[in-house]
């Protein structure tokens, strides 16, 4: 090989090496040489892992910050199933909840329903002689299709009863009447309207509904009557006769298979409880067919004591009566508290609620011989009446949250069944 040829060969080899170096630099982020010690390799690997972990954390934060869509957890226990050896588990429902995702929550977890509003007098007979059944029938049908028992709430109440019940034949308020003869005529007119209402309603549903709230919230010691009676138009016009008549007509029309209850809130309060006890005992002595007492059990995370709740049930059981929990929920606020946690309910409050629910259901289970039904007033925090009472705010009184997910309260209730 000539010297000139050797020279060109070296130039070509050098150029190739240079091109390889440039290409390597391009592939390694611009560095012509990319030799690293073991420690440097470890550092780069660690940095890459940190970057990867940071990206994963950011993705997780994005997922958490996104609003969760409501869904039903199919792989958790059914409340009705875990308490099947003790008592039915029920919940209040509105007609619009018989379809859609919320309906699946009822189907999975309860085996008893009660209408929250649509079976009250103003909904069923808004004007005299004109009965509207569509909403009530919808709940009856939903219960039948899903093998659920039903409760009726309520035949007689001072609230959500249309005004026409309490107007005389001239359209004047009966409570304003002072003439003794006309007052007696008004009493009979009101009792006749009561009889007609109960006769029509019980006749329609007696084959589908066995558990009935006949009268609701007739005791109110704060109204000043010596016997503790609520000073409602019912009481002002008829005394306690409306209670006697309501139970007797319900029994006559519905037969012996119906279970007839007097329902009230605050039955754990000794003063109110004793007034109710005296009323019921007097009715029983007169032969009024009362089968049991419904304890609404709207309580909170602080009070009342569970011992007081059970003590009241035992007192009525002493009269040979059944007890049921008719409207259970547990506010996260004490009774006189009007504050609002908003979207930031403290974790200790959520855990306190769970603890209370567990203790409550343990007590229910231990006293199943005097307690035949437990019914929640709703099923999800999203639709609780306590979001608007006594003030509008965020409340969380039920076992499932606003996305229909099981709360610590749910798991505490399940644990109590074991």
Can I get a quick summary?
The chain is α/β, with parallel strands linked by helices and 418 residues long. The chain has 13 helices and 9 strands. The longest helix is centred in the N-terminal third of the chain and has 28 residues.
Description:
This protein is α/β, with parallel strands linked by helices and 418 residues long. The chain has 2 domains: 3-64, no CATH class; 79-416, TIM Barrel (Alpha-Beta Barrel). It is built from 13 helices and 9 strands. Strands 1-2-3-4-5-6-8-9 form an 8-stranded parallel beta barrel, surrounded by 5 helices. Helix 7 runs parallel beside helix 9 (241-254) and helix 12 packs parallel to helix 13 (408-416). The protein is globular and about 65 Å long. The relative contact order is 0.10. The model is unreliable at 1-66 (pLDDT under 50).
Order of helices and strands: HHHEHEHHEHEHHEHEEHEHEH
- Number of H/I helices: 13
- CATH superfamily of the largest domain, by name, is Glycosidases
- Strands side by side in the biggest sheet: 1-2-3-4-5-6-8-9
CATH class of the largest domain: Alpha Beta
**Runs with pLDDT <50, length 5+?**
1-66
Rg (CA only)? 34 Å
The coarse overall form would be globular
Mean pLDDT: 88
Terminal Cα span: 97 Å
What fraction of the residues are assigned to beta strands by DSSP? 5-15%
Number of domains: 2
Kindly identify the CATH topology of the largest domain: TIM Barrel
Give the helix/strand class.
alpha/beta
- Number of DSSP-assigned strands: 9
**What's the main sheet like?**
8 strands, parallel, barrel
Helix content: 40-55%
- The second-level CATH architecture of the largest domain is Alpha-Beta Barrel
Q: Assembly state here? A: single chain
């Amino acid at each position: 090989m000539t010297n000139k040829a050797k020279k060109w060969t070296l130039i070509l080899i050098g150029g190739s090496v240079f091109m390889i170096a440039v290409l390597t630099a391009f592939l390694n982020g611009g560095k012509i040489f990319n030799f690293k010690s073991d420690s440097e390799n470890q550092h780069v690997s660690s940095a890459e892992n940190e970057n990867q972990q940071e990206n994963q954390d950011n993705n997780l934060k994005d997922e958490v910050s996104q609003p969760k869509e409501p869904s039903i957890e199919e792989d958790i226990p059914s409340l009705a199933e875990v308490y099947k050896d003790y008592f039915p588990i029920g919940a209040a429902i509105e007609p619009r909840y018989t379809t859609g995702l919320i309906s699946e929550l009822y189907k999975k977890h309860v085996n008893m329903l009660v209408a929250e509003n649509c079976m009250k007098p103003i909904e069923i007979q808004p004007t005299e002689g004109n009965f509207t059944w569509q909403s009530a029938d919808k709940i009856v049908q939903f219960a039948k299709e899903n093998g659920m028992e039903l409760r009726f709430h309520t035949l007689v109440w001072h609230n959500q009863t249309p005004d026409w019940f309490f107007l005389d034949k001239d359209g004047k308020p009966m409570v304003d009447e002072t003439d003794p003869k006309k007052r007696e005529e008004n009493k009979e007119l009101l009792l006749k309207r009561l009889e007609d209402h109960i006769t029509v309603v019980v006749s329609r549903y007696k084959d589908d509904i066995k558990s009935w709230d006949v009268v609701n919230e007739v005791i109110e010691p704060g109204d000043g009557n010596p016997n503790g009676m609520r000073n409602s138009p019912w009481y002002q016009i008829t005394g306690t006769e409306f209670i006697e008549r309501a139970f007797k007509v319900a029994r006559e029309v519905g037969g012996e298979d119906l279970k007839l209850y007097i329902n009230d809130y605050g039955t754990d309060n000794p003063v109110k409880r004793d007034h109710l006890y005296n009323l019921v005992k007097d009715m029983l002595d007169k032969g009024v067919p009362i089968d049991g007492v419904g304890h609404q059990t709207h309580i909170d995370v602080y009070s009342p004591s569970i011992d007081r709740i059970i003590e009241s049930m035992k007192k009525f059981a002493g009269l040979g009566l059944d007890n049921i929990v008719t409207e259970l929920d547990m506010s996260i606020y004490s009774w006189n508290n009007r504050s609002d946690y908003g979207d930031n309910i403290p974790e200790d409050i959520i855990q306190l609620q769970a603890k209370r629910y567990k203790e409550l259901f343990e007590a229910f289970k231990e006293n199943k011989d005097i307690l035949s039904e437990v019914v929640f007033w709703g099923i999800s925090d999203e639709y609780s009446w306590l979001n608007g009472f006594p003030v509008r705010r965020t409340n969380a009184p039920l076992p499932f949250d606003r996305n229909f997910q099981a709360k610590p309260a749910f798991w505490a209730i399940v644990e109590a069944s074991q």
